[in-house]
Amino acid sequence: MAETAVIIDYGSGNLRSAEKALARVARDAGLDCIIKVTDKPDDVRAADRIILPGVGAFADCRNGLLAIDGLRDAIQEKVRVEGKPFLGICVGMQLMAMEGHEFGVHKGMGWIEGAIRAMRPSDNSLKIPHMGWNDVALTDAGRNHPVAGVLEPGDHAYFVHSYHMELNADAALLGTTQYGGQVTAVVGADNMIGTQFHPEKSQAVGLKFLKAFLEWRP
After folding, report:
1. What are 75-107's pLDDT values in tens digits?
2. Residue 215 annotated as catalytic
3. Which sequence spans correspond to the domains of the chain?
């Protein structure tokens, strides 16, 4: 039976780019997987995999998610109760944290022990937002992770962000990049993984990451 991977539509995210990239990966890899963009809680409850994209401010994305009746609860049920594979992208990853400090303090999903704070590069010549291609260096945990571990030394991914996740402990840290200091690039715990970069915009590197996610059996 075909799996269904749902991309959550809550008014924020590169939905069509993510849909195209995931559909291409599934087709090229011969995976029996349906890619579906949806804002319906019932679709989420029927899904085998969940992808939460996100572009913009933390609070706006959080409010957009909460504005759709039953959507957050459906995601919580599938991810934290049933243990279905979850991928958060950019602000979708940031929403996994305990809270976000962008235009005030706002609660996140509370799945990863950390907070979202403004980037402050040590080099004042570096512009914010951090925008462009950067290499991703995996931690020991990242190298051993079934999804993050497909990234190789020298692989570059595409970033666009002004805030990043500051973790309370390194256990969930799978990968970093450098931009006037260490920046969290990949996090993960149990059946969840998140990327600050955009795999759907990261060409071959992003496609192999998405393929690993669609094949992941946590």
Report:
1. 999 999 999 999 999 999 999 999 999 889 999
2. no
3. 3-215
Q: Give the pLDDT mean for 120-147.
A: 94
CATH superfamily of 3-215: Class I glutamine amidotransferase (GATase) domain (3.40.50.880)
Q: How far is CA 82 from CA 24, 174, 200, 211, in A?
A: 27, 23, 26, 22
Give the 3-state secondary structure of the chain.
Answer: CCEEEEEECCCCCCHHHHHHHHHHHHHHCCCCEEEEEECCHHHHHCCCEEEECCCCCHHHHHHHHHCCCCHHHHHHHHHHHCCCCEEEECHHHHCCEEEEECCCEEECCCCEEEEEEECCCCCCCCCCCEEEEEECEECHHHHCCCCHHHCCCCCEEEEEECEEEEECCHHHEEEEEECCCEEEEEEEECCEEEECCCHHHCHHHHHHHHHHHHHCCC
pTM (two decimals): 0.96
Backbone angles phi, psi at 72, to 5 degrees: -65, -40
For residue 61, indicate whether it is catalytic: no
pLDDT for residue 12 = 77
What is the rounded radius of gyration, in angstroms, for the C-alpha atoms of the chain?
16
Q: Pick the catalytic residue: 90, 130, 161, 164?
A: 90
Is residue 90 annotated as a catalytic residue, yes or no?
A: yes
In this predicted model, what pLDDT tens digit does every residue of 134-178 receive, in sequence order? 999 999 999 999 999 999 999 999 999 999 999 998 899 999 999
C-alpha span between 35 and 9 (Å, rounded): 13
